Amino acid sequence: xxxxxxxxxxxxxxxxxxxxxxxxxxxxxxxxxxxxxxxxxxxxxxxxxxxxxxxxxxxxxxxxxxxxxxxxxxxxxxxxxxxxxxxxxxxxxxxxxxxxxxxxxxxxxxxxxxxxxxxxxxxxxxxxxxxxxxxxxxxxxxxxxxxxxxxxxxxxxxxxxxxxxxxxxxxxxxxxxxxxxxxxxxxxxxxxxxxxxxxxxxxxxxxxxxxxxxxxxxxxxxxxxxxxxxxxxxxxxxxxxxxxxxxxxxxxxxxxxxxxxxxxxxxxxxxxxxxxxxxxxxxxxxxxxxxxxxxxxxxxxxxxxxxxxxxxxxxxxxxxxxxxxxxxxxxxxxxxxxxxxxxxxxxxxxxxxxxxxxxxxxxxxxxxxxxxxxxxxxxxxxxxxxxxxxxxxxxxxxxxxxxxxxxxxxxxxxxxxxxxxxxxxxxxxxxxxxxxxxxxxxxxxxxxxxxxxxxxxxxxxxxxx
Length: 465
Prior knowledge:
Layout: H1 13-25, E1 32-33, H2 34-41, H3 47-57, E2 61-64, E3 70-73, H4 75-89, E4 94-101, E5 105-111, E6 117-123, H5 133-136, H6 148-168, E7 176-180, E8 183-187, E9 192-193, H7 203-219, E10 222-223, E11 232-234, E12 240-242, E13 249-250, H8 256-274, H9 288-297, H10 311-314, H11 322-333, H12 335-348, H13 350-435, H14 450-464
Antiparallel strand pairs: 1-3, 2-3, 4-5, 5-6, 6-8, 7-8, 9-11, 10-13, 11-12
Helix pairs in contact: 1-2, 1-3, 7-8
């Protein structure tokens, strides 16, 4: 869907309030009911439904009435929420042309108030060209249910974290500025993708620099997994810059060697085709020593020493398990060496432990005899207490029987009083009825004849009787 920023200037505060309400409802609903949207937005005089109609016209929402009447955010509506937040933060003030399209994202130019041009990357997972995200990427981890907007948000957060960490360790990456939802703002790289470059002044030097970046990433515990000519930028001075980091994994990943070899093979293949660089291919008649010498020039996963740092641990890259993290922490604290030293000292203390065991056995025997004496004395005290308790119980039972008899006599007297009171009450009610005067209806004077007047006369006679 094309990003038309002109619509953004015509959206009101109520429009963004309803968009935010739909976003909040999508945490628990695939299609948010319209009643829930109205409740979350809480606009006056039922204005939510009018705003929904306006947002639906601009294709910021999608309406679905298959099971119930509800709405969901589109990527355009999600874009507007992210851009509005960035503008409010003062990250940029204008959105320009589109400068890149990928299978997972779109890239636009944005500018600040001082005229600085930056790049805005909007992640758009779920396109028909690349829907195997669940199997190709590790954004979900252990979750089964997912939403494309939620996956795009996870990809943006992961890329922002990797970009920040790699920049701090001196890697040639864009400067990460800010991140919100599925939007990442970074500095604009002044260069071209390597796939668009036809000639290089020093292709061998660029080739060595790119291979050195792959090895250096692995020494820091990371593998790019998509290191090819499309994700390498090069400027006029042949300075190399890496881009696109959401798919990076740890060197502890089960397929780490395969990903590493694939990245290396992509670079070898591209430079061989584009810049006609030749690499030695081994035949069956070549000596083993020559093969080993050539393999030493080509980077291999087994020859890499992970000594530069633990970026995969810091960024929780996929493939780095909790067990490996605990082992690294123990190694750093020196607990492994202490355990090894403790095993040697244990053999010397075996004699002392046997002597201590014998002394403890003797002490236990003496304790058993003392416990038997104490238990016998306790038994006699228990018998005396039981006899006293039985006597107390018998006395309490006699007192309870006496009290029960008194209560029965009191209940009988109470019953007689109740009967006498009810009789007196009935007599008083009857006397009151005898002395009461019966009045005719207030509307009797209105009756001038007919059945109603006849009935009123009969009632008067009955009352007089």
